[in-house]
Specification:
It is built from 2 helices and no strands. The protein has about 80 residues and is mainly alpha-helical. The chain has one domain. Helix 1 runs antiparallel to helix 2. The longest helix has about 35 residues.
């Protein structure tokens, strides 16, 4: 007999749902934080609000990439590099 540890379909779906929710929360919070930071910077410098939105989008894209790399690196239910999360 082989020692394959294959989870059932319900576990896989629950794991993917947990990871997806975690990653979405991280991406959205990073976008909002970056956008607010962009607004704080662009207001005194008389910059465009589109620059603030672009800053938020770049931050969110980087958060998404980081979360995907964290998942690829260590197959857990989290988008974090921290152990045990």
């Amino acid at each position: 007999m082989s020692d394959l540890n294959i989870p059932d379909a319900q576990t896989v779906v629950k794991t993917a749902k947990t990871y997806g929710r975690d990653l979405l929360e991280r991406v959205l919070s990073t976008f909002l934080q970056s956008f607010i930071a962009g607004v704080v910077i662009t207001q005194p410098l008389d910059g465009s609000m589109w620059y603030a939105a672009l800053t938020g989008g770049i931050g969110a894209a980087l958060a998404l990439l980081k979360g995907l790399v964290a998942r690829w690196r260590d197959l857990t239910n989290s988008a974090s590099f921290a152990k045990g999360v």
